[in-house]
Every structure is written in C-alpha cells, then in structure tokens.
Amino acid sequence: MRHYNRSRRANLFTQNLLWIGYQAWQGYLNLDRGAVVISSEVDLLDDSDRHWGDNLEPSLNFRYIPQAQLSIYLQEWLVQTPAIDPILAAVANYQPQTELIFAIESSSLDLGWCQRLKISPPDCYQQICRRWSEFELGVRG
Q1: Any idea what the Cα angle at residue 84 is, between residues 81 and 87, rounded to 5°?
Q2: What's the CA gap between 70 and 94, in Å, rounded?
Q3: E strand or H helix that includes residue 24
C-alpha cells in the first residue's frame, strides 16, 4: 500500500470522502470487513491532463469487496501471492469505526489504508442517510 502525495487522485479521494466512508460503513455493516473499490473508465492514477480536459471529473463507480472475497479479487488483478498476505492482514486489523481500506482500479491496482480520517465511516454513513435526497440523483455504486 502506498502513501498518497497531493495529486489528482488524492483530491479525488478527498472530494468523495463522504461517499467512500458511506460505502465502507455500509459494506462493513452488511458484509463485515473489506475494502471500498473505486473505478472509472479513465485512468485515475494518470496525473497528466489527457483524461481531465475541460475540468470534467471522471464518472466514478464504487463497490465493496468483503474480506472473504478479497484474495480472489487481488489474484484477478495479478497481485503477486507474497503481497496478498500483508493486504489481508491490514484488512483483518483495520478499525472500521475510524479507518478504511480502499482500492483504486486503473491501469494498475492501487491500495490505501486511511487511518486518520477527518470524518469517520459511521459519521459519513449517518450524514448520507440523513441527507439522502441530496445524493439520490448522483447515486454511484
């Protein structure tokens, strides 16, 4: 897992933190531990301007992969077997009430473990549920 520097992908994460936290907590409540996966038709890890013309944000898709299916998911992305165990250990040990694990699908797979969130996944979930009408038209996932 890599630490993010300030870039478009970090901004993308920051701008969608409420929705990512909602997905993380909803997934945890329904499926136990796991990771939020973010995907798009454009390469989200490409910092060049070729996919980001006219200041348009890419359309994002979100889904939750439970811990029980994570190993298969990682193998499908051709993650080497020695690298899978530390990822599964991170998922087994993160604190769902205050942290989340995410993956960005792009030309490659990028994983992150957010440990010092400004807003917790349960709080993200509560805010989205309270303000659901604001999110209905833009539901992603």
Answers
A1: 170
A2: 15
A3: helix 17-31
CA atoms within 13 A on the CB side of 76: 7
Instruction: Decide if 33 contacts 67 (C-beta within 8 A).
Output: yes
Q: Are 64 and 31 in contact (CB under 8 A)?
A: yes
Confidence (pTM): 0.82
**Total residues belonging to the chain:** 141
d(CA 91, CA 36): 11
Q: Please, which residues bridge with residue 38 across strands?
A: 62, 104
pLDDT digits (tens, 9 = 90+) for 32-82: 999 999 998 777 666 565 554 554 566 889 999 999 999 999 999 999 989
Burial 106-116 (b: 16+ CB within 10 A, else e): beebbbbbbee
